[in-house]
Amino acid sequence: MNLKQFIIDKAKELNIDLIGFTDCEPLDDLKDYLIMRKLKNMEIEFEEKDIEKRINPKLILPSCKTIIVIAMSYNNDFNYVSEYELKGKVSRSSWGLDYHVVLEDRLEKLIMEIKKNKEFNYKYYVDTGPLIERELARKAGIGYYGKNCSIINDEYGSFIFIGYILTDIDIPINSPILGSKCGDCNLCIKACPTGALERPFRFNPKKCISYLTQTKMDIPYELREKMGTSIYGCDICQLACPKNKGVKKPNHKEFLPNKGYIDIKELLSMSNREFKKEYGSMAGAWRGKNILKRNAIIALGNIKNKNTLDLLIPLLEDASPMIREYVAWAILNIDFEFGRELVEKQLKKEENQLMKRKMENILNYYLTRIDNNY
């Protein structure tokens, strides 16, 4: 029996869009780049800190011989007009059911099909393993790197989720895709609001809006102002990419929008239980209510509608010091003179010394801006 073809056929039956096979050799070509990122403090808190684990599959599965890589498209069209008075953006990656759950289910079913014919050792991951899955996808023939560092497939574009199985089975591998097909195009680089795409094929994740909507670290004021109304994730560079135009559309109902937008007003007043009930099935829910609530506050600060101050002012008394700090920023960003009085009153009763210093810093930031502008 041709095991590789059997796996390909079963993947198709499981409605997996793309599948490829690569070896378990270390990803040594990326080592210098990862070291550079570490030295420049460009690592993010979600990634594996041990560089060797990021590039060597055999440190994850010592008996590894072949890696099976799958991809599923989430490039759904969504023309729903939200009736929310204040709406925040959610990236396509979080429109439907949590993609981790969907792809893990596909991988588990594929593994069970393979085990009907051959017992083997394995480990599988969807965005949670230490290895650089985009490089595995490139090596497995799934796609090539775009200038925004996304993997682009000729048939489906770059809106694809990736998962992989480390196995101890010998399977003929695919040829890796070399080079890129971006040519002289740099639309993604021009489109990025924060300058996270610092040059072709190099991006600073700590400037990326998608990262900013997930991090628990302090977000610099100048980056807050460029986040727009993003509540979770960002699609800007991919939407600008011509390679995502005229591509094959997926048929995965799991990724159809449950929440194409977030009702900001509702989110600000939700309990944790209400949040889990309403948003628990989407990928973005993993970060919890308070981080998304913080992002909603940033969105209001960027909308700059004075009518939203009635939503923000009560949150100066929020139990979370982080929320109080971002509310102070948003109010000052909307109406400095009005906000200055409120923040100065808050400073007099703020008991958290760290938050007090942060609010003072925000106030000084805006005072400096005003002095520089006039």
TrEMBL record:
One of its GO terms (molecular function) is metal ion binding. Residues 173-202 form the 4Fe-4S ferredoxin-type domain. InterPro entries: 4Fe4S_Fe-S-bd, 4Fe4S_Fe_S_CS, ARM-like, ARM-type_fold, QueG, QueG_DUF1730. GO terms for biological process: tRNA queuosine(34) biosynthetic process. Keywords: 4Fe-4S, Cytoplasm, Iron, Iron-sulfur, Metal-binding, Oxidoreductase, Queuosine biosynthesis, tRNA processing. It comes from the Bacteria. Pfam families: Fer4_16, HEAT_2, QueG_DUF1730. This is Epoxyqueuosine reductase. The lineage of its organism: Bacteria, Bacillati, Bacillota, Tissierellia, Tissierellales.
